[in-house]
Task: structure prediction
Amino acid sequence: MKTPLTALTIAAGNLQTAGLPDEVRREQLQIIQTELARLKHLFENMIDLASVEARATTPELEWVSPSDIVEAARRQAQTAISTHAITIDGQPDPPLVFLDPRLTTSALAHVLENAARYSPLEAPIEIGVRVDEDHLSIAVRDHGPGIPGEDLAQIFERFYRGRNAGDDTFRSGMGLTITRGLLEQQHGIISVANHPNGGATFTLNIPTTTRRISELSADVA
Result:
């Protein structure tokens, strides 16, 4: 039995040799490639969701710069956020934080993707980064319609699609659930609130310890 991914891959191969005008073939190939990317992303989310629910991943803690986390998440979410201007508000010289960079990056990438989906195509997405002595906080504000009050309590539940999800069947309701699970593996949390000037703000908080690069250099020496 062929999977949807296999069927689309075969269809793409057939188009390469089909006797169609070049313009029509390019258009059909673009449609197939878009659907392949969407299905691949959906399957990856299903695997990630199963992993976080089974708590199959053990956090691997490292000293890392908050800016590296943000930049890695931007790259991971690039396809979704490509039409949006990203602004970053952070401390001028934040300390390093001790956490799992892979889990944290993935959690933030899902939030960025969610912000892009619920915002107008060219609306900005704002990222605020703060480091205190005992936790890292990353806030992501979109400029979409905000979240209806009745959705706020359920927005992180598995497969829950809010009232603003529309008819896009690829909004599966897994991304924010995965984010919550990735953070919980590090004893972190995610919260959401509507911004008074419009849109919604999702805030990731992860407990951590902090150090300056100079302190790490002294330890090595």
